[in-house]
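Can anyone check this?
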Amino acid sequence: MVSSYRDKGTRTPGFGSATSSFKSAIECRQTVTDSGTRPPGDLHLSQIDEPTNYGRLAVRILIALIISALAVVAWVRFERKTPIATGDIARISIYPVQAKITGGAAGTAGMQGQDEIVNQLLVFAHVRLHNPNKAPITIVDDWAVVTLPDGDSRRSPAASQADFDKVFQAYPQLGPMRMDPLRRNIQIQPGQSVDGLVVFSYPLSREDWDKRKAMQVTISFNGAKDVTLNAPSG
């Protein structure tokens, strides 16, 4: 019977997996038995929760609140001390320009294409700035945004010195409105005021301009916050 049992056992399919499961069951049982036979007083320190130190927790919360409060105070004081320039737009003038592009290249070979009219609008803004602070500030950049009735907007950087001169060379009839440009990199001393002409260009018609909702000119500085000026209507 013993040999028969052994032979039968060795031919049982899946014996390897059964042995593995059996071994796992033994280990599990040993673990349960060991934990159950350990005297109640024999506890591992890792199983004991450390009592909550409410005093230490309160100190940490207080320190975090103090740091947050100091950060807010520093930010408020920094914002108040940041220099702010003042200014306005004394005058706005426009000059509509229409360019005609012949359509010869747009048509098929041997046929004349349609001409295209491109609207361009030159906007001239007389900007005045004042530095009421105790330190000099420097103009870094300037641009303007025109908001249309549908809420869409058009942004234009101010013309560079080279483009400024080219505008008046191309359209000599604009000579009467010419004045010194508001130059970038110009330094405004404390208590000093400067003014100058700034030129912008938009792909708009005069009708688009007349229907605009607003125009704003922004001047950025080194040493002061940006200043945004609302252009007069009309």
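Reply from J.R.: I decoded it. The CA atoms of residues 1 and 202 lie 105 Å apart.
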